[in-house]
């Protein structure tokens, strides 16, 4: 399951239509919102009748998020029963005002959905005519940017080339994301939903300043961690940072395994690292709002507690 998001008018439907026009992507089911840009319906009906699911009644991340599991399961049931052509992926196209975080959690918190679906990449279309202003004014646009695994820069054909300071801003806004342009996707539609390259190599804070006080801090992990330590570190981040914790992603090595660590807010998942991460240095990058590196660095020792150690309580961090 992939998520395609982006603020109002960012061009995400154009990108999706381009991808779906390629024969290799005809086995795609799409979930769109009533408030979304759904001009792709006619194209999908011509090529894959019934494989568009419309969620009505409000924004996908809030008013109708509880309807999403049933919508996804209905697509899976109809595929299994032969009512729909076989599809190999589901793309959720959000409204321009959606926060991707709750949508990501739909699969993660449902054992039934997790049996049939796995969360793929979060792709955000970023309007390079007015995207920076949108991010500075609208919390939804900021969340879409920060939670992206891939950023697609749109509308570059309508303006001058990117200035160096804009490249610095993009890198600081989300140092974890792959960055491509809409032209790149037009030339190779497979780029849009290509698997994430795993955790990016550790970055410095040279480009980490961002609107709304968002900072990206990276920490190398020279020593192996424990699984109990990862759970303890996640709890410590939650207790210490609260709502100021936006995202965490990186690579951590236990004794014998390289793990991909991903967190959205206080919710963390730990899986085996993809082959593309082989050779990358273990590290964690934490994206926060109005917090300094030292506050996070003070919590790093929790990564190394012995197996079987319970996560800390708020009182343990006093």
From TrEMBL:
Keywords: Chaperone, Hydrolase, Nucleotide-binding, Plasmid
Database matches in Pfam families: cobW, CobW_C
Ranges for domain CobW C-terminal: 214-300
Gene Ontology terms: cellular component: cytoplasm
Catalytic activity: GTP + H2O = GDP + phosphate + H(+)
Gene Ontology molecular function terms on file: hydrolase activity; nucleotide binding
Top-level taxon: Bacteria
Keyword Nucleotide-binding attached: yes
InterPro entries associated with the record: CobW-likC_sf (IPR036627), CobW-like_C (IPR011629), CobW/HypB/UreG_nucleotide-bd (IPR003495), P-loop_NTPase (IPR027417), Zinc-reg_GTPase_activator (IPR051316)
Plastid found in the keyword field: no
Purpose of the protein: Zinc chaperone that directly transfers zinc cofactor to target proteins, thereby activating them. Zinc is transferred from the CXCC motif in the GTPase domain to the zinc binding site in target proteins in a process requiring GTP hydrolysis.
PANTHER family (alphabetical): COBW DOMAIN-CONTAINING PROTEIN, COBW-RELATED
Family membership noted in the UniProt record: Belongs to the SIMIBI class G3E GTPase family. ZNG1 subfamily.
Name of the featured protein: CobW C-terminal domain-containing protein
Species, as recorded: Novosphingobium resinovorum
């Amino acid at each position: 399951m992939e998520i395609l998001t982006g603020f109002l008018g960012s061009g995400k439907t154009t990108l999706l239509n381009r991808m779906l026009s390629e024969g290799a992507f005809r086995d795609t089911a799409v979930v769109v919102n009533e408030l979304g840009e759904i001009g792709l319906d006619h194209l999908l009906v011509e090529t894959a009748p019934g494989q568009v699911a419309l969620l009505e009644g409000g924004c996908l991340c809030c008013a109708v998020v509880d309807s999403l599991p049933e919508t996804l399961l209905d697509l899976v049931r109809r595929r299994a029963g032969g009512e729909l052509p076989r599809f190999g992926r589901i793309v959720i196209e959000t409204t321009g005002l959606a926060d991707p975080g709750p949508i990501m959690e739909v699969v993660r918190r449902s054992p039934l959905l997790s049996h049939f679906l796995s969360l793929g990449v979060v792709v955000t279309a970023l309007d390079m005519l007015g995207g920076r202003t949108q991010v500075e004014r609208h919390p939804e646009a900021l969340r879409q940017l920060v939670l992206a695994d891939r950023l697609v820069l749109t509308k570059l054909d309508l303006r001058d080339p990117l200035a160096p300071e804009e490249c610095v801003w993009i890198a600081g806004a989300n140092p974890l994301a792959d960055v491509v342009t809409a032209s790149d996707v037009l030339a190779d539609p497979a780029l849009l939903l290509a698997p994430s390259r795993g955790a990016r190599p550790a970055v410095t804070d040279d480009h980490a300043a961002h609107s709304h006080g968002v900072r990206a801090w990276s920490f190398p992990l020279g020593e192996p961690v424990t699984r109990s330590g990862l759970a303890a570190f996640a709890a410590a981040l939650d207790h210490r940072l609260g709502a100021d914790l936006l995202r965490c992603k990186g690579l951590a090595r236990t004794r014998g395994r390289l793990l991909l660590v991903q967190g959205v807010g206080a919710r963390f998942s730990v899986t085996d690292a993809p082959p593309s991460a082989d050779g990358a240095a273990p590290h964690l990058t934490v994206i926060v709002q109005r917090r300094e590196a030292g506050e996070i660095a003070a919590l790093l020792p929790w990564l190394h507690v012995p197996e079987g150690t319970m996560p800390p309580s708020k009182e343990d961090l006093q």
